[in-house]
Amino acid sequence: MAEESERMRELRERMDRLQRATAPEPPPAADATTVSPVQPGISGRLKAVLKLAGLVLSLVVIFQTAFTLMSLNGKDFDDARRVGQAKVESCERRGPVGVIYGYWDECLVSVEWNDGVHQRSYFDKPHLFHAGEVGTTVELGNNGYGRSGPTYSRPDFEPRPLLATLGIILFVVAAIPGVITIIALWSLAQGALQRLFRRR
């Protein structure tokens, strides 16, 4: 009986030693100097905010590129309903709209149309008139009305349909994620406002 209890005790001791040998080591106690002040939740939120900011910035760049490409597309001078001599009187710099679209000139121009009508107007379409042309007279065509009002053309500002098409494609490509981003930002703003009111 005593031998049996002795053997049982030895077996238990062996089992304890095996368990201690195979048990995983506990993680080292965190030292106050090595604990990161940024908790995982805050870090994850910061990453999400940075990703969203990067997406918004890239969409702004794409939209500006699209508008720049479309603004480089002139109207066909051969389609002008009437032509005239345009004297550039003065120009003022406008903009900038971002880094890519940049600046453009809004110019006061006096036009003598070939049908005898005199027109004195401000022209703000980018690339139609430039500040360097103040005091000069250039040929101008009136191409009728478009979606945003009267349209004009010049022989040296030719149509570039490829650039206009690229601009439209970029605009459409950016519009879909743009709408999604606006919805996401609206949801985030609503959530932040709700949390703010709950605390009060």
Structure description:
- The chain has 200 residues and is α+β, with helices and mostly antiparallel strands.
- Helices cover 46% and strands 24% of the residues.
- Strands 3-2-1-4-5 form a 5-stranded antiparallel β-sheet, with no helix packed on it.
- β4 and β5 form a beta hairpin.
- The chain is rod-shaped and about 130 Å long.
- The model has no long low-confidence stretch (mean pLDDT 83).
What topology does this entry show?
Layout: H1 2-22, H2 40-71, E1 82-97, E2 102-113, E3 118-123, E4 137-146, E5 149-153, H3 161-199
Antiparallel strand pairs: 1-2, 1-4, 2-3, 4-5
What integer is the average pLDDT? 83
What is the 3D shape?
rod-shaped
Class from helix and strand fractions: alpha+beta
How would a textbook summarize the main sheet?
5 strands, antiparallel
Strand tally: 5
Query: What is the gyration radius calculated from CA atoms?
Result: 36 Å
| Uncertain residue segments | none
Q: Distance N terminus to C terminus?
A: 74 Å
Question: In sequence order, what are the helices and strands, one letter per element?
Answer: HHEEEEEH
In DSSP terms, counting alpha (H) and pi (I) runs of 4 or more, how many helices? 3
Major sheet: order of its strands?
3-2-1-4-5
Strand % is 15-25%
What proportion of the residues is helical, as a percent range?
Answer: 40-55%
